[in-house]
Predict the structure.
Amino acid sequence: MKPQRFTAKLAEKEVFNEKFSKYIFELEQPHRMEFEAGQYVSITVDEAGDRRSYSVCSNPDTHHSFELLVDHSPDGKGTTFFKNLKFGNEVDAMGPLGKFVLVPDKGEDELVFVATGSGIAPFMSMILNLLQDVNEKRPITLYWGLRYVENMFWENEFQDLVDEYKNFKFHPVLSKALEEWPLCKGRVTDCLAIHDVPVKGCYYLCGSTKMIEDVSELLLGRGVKAENVHFEKFY
Ligand SMILES: Cc1cc2nc3c(=O)[nH]c(=O)nc-3n(C[C@H](O)[C@H](O)[C@H](O)COP(=O)(O)OP(=O)(O)OC[C@H]3O[C@@H](n4cnc5c(N)ncnc54)[C@H](O)[C@@H]3O)c2cc1C
């Protein structure tokens, strides 16, 4: 679908913790948006018309609303705009935008998603789409790096998917984990390095430039072809 300008209304806000919240917008005019999992919308965040990009985290089977996950920590114009939004406020959105979408199956053995922080947003949409809509049967593994356990959210949602779909695995990774944290500690790259890195896998990376550079270096060093590494840099 070609990008269009939309007016959308804040219908619901879910505060996950101090850092992350999810915002649910109902589309007003036009009333319907078709998007591919992984695409983003550009939101006007001030009177001068300055914009910021946010990946849609909802399943692309929803057409009359869209959900955005916002990391509030940058504390700039964009995140402050979201913080100040009240229920019923209208936003000006342009979308769907971007080419970071699921690529057609070219015979790769597995799908591997690696995110840091809010980089999880497009992956929630992609993974829901793969598991619930297109019935993907290849193994799907998600690595998600956060700093503290207090930053964590969606762990129940991902655990439910692990329980329901035998081909889905989830590895949360904490860089500032407490001693007793039983799962991966350190950077997502460290966690990925100690697991199987399928050479014929299809990789999707999203989050900080540093993570994308480090993970790409690891993957290419293990023999993964550059054409099978897809990424979106948030900052
Ligand atoms: C294609 C695309 C999709 C994006 N999707 C999302 C999304 O789904 N959710 C989301 O929260 N953000 C997303 N972003 C980042 C978002 O567009 C803004 O950059 C972010 O909200 C900061 O905006 P700001 O105006 O508050 O801060 P700014 O004043 O623009 O930036 C302040 C500083 O924070 C850094 N920064 C920006 N984002 C982050 C971050 N997440 N963590 C740490 N530092 C950061 C910037 O590099 C800058 O140094 C996306 C960016 C792109 C390019």
